[in-house]
Specification:
Blueprint: H1 16-19, E1 23-24, E2 26-31, E3 37-42, E4 45-49, E5 54-59, H2 71-79, E6 81-85, H3 92-97, H4 108-112, E7 116-118, E8 125-127, E9 132-143, E10 150-161, E11 166-167, E12 170-171, H5 173-176, E13 179-181, E14 187-189
Antiparallel strand pairs: 1-13, 2-3, 2-6, 4-5, 5-10, 6-9, 7-8, 9-10, 11-12, 13-14
């Protein structure tokens, strides 16, 4: 089939998210200027540069109490920092629970039964149970076409890795059971990684 998104797809469910997958999950924790914390998963997330290390996530919705955006973006605008918490299979239910549309006064950490622990380089909480965390300072907020679409780019200024997530000096994605987002309501676990040498690798 072929379709133009502006004309609609004619299928029971939009296939776009399923085609661009799997995608890592940006589990973003923030703290507002008022001291309230927030935690929310974003499926439009990825690393975008090595030096300095940078990541991005996009918010594609809005809450009525957040001026055409969500709590995460609102907090980042106020404080200029956020933390990306890496999601494992063991944390799947907590991650899903944190996606609830709670009032800004309620903590997703408490709602999902997660422990808040402070970051080292920024004034922001992180998920203590996560296999890794990326502390980020805001680099850019980029408005995107469409209502309530906003991309946030951050520079990673601190990285936490749980000791049990390292194997032979490398982060063990399969051992940590990293979770990824597919389309619809589907997810996948990293279980069977393999290695390919690039053509220009030293022989």
């Amino acid at each position: 089939m072929f379709y133009q998104p502006k004309d609609g797809h004619g299928l029971p469910h939009n296939p776009f998210n399923a085609l661009v997958s799997p995608r890592p999950i940006g589990w973003i924790s923030t703290k507002g200027a008022d001291g309230r914390t927030n935690l929310a998963p974003y499926s439009f997330f990825n690393a975008v540069a090595y030096v300095p290390p940078q990541v991005m996530f996009s918010s594609t919705g809005a809450k009525p109490d957040r001026d055409n955006t969500k709590d995460s973006v609102s907090h980042i605008r106020e404080t200029g920092v956020f933390c990306v918490n890496i999601v494992s299979y063991a944390l799947r239910d907590a991650m899903n629970a944190s996606s609830a549309g709670l009032p800004k006064e309620e903590s997703e950490f408490a709602h999902a039964g997660l422990a808040e622990t402070p970051c080292e380089m920024i004034d922001c909480p992180r998920v203590a149970e996560a296999p890794a965390n990326l502390e980020c300072r805001l680099a850019q907020i980029v408005p995107l076409a469409g209502p309530s679409n906003t991309m946030v780019i951050g520079e990673v200024v601190g990285i936490h890795i749980r000791d049990d997530a390292l194997a032979d000096g490398m982060f063990d994605a399969a051992g940590a059971g990293l979770l990824s987002r597919l389309g619809y309501r589907d997810y996948a676990i990293v279980q069977s990684p393999f290695t390919l040498k690039r053509p220009d690798d030293a022989r």
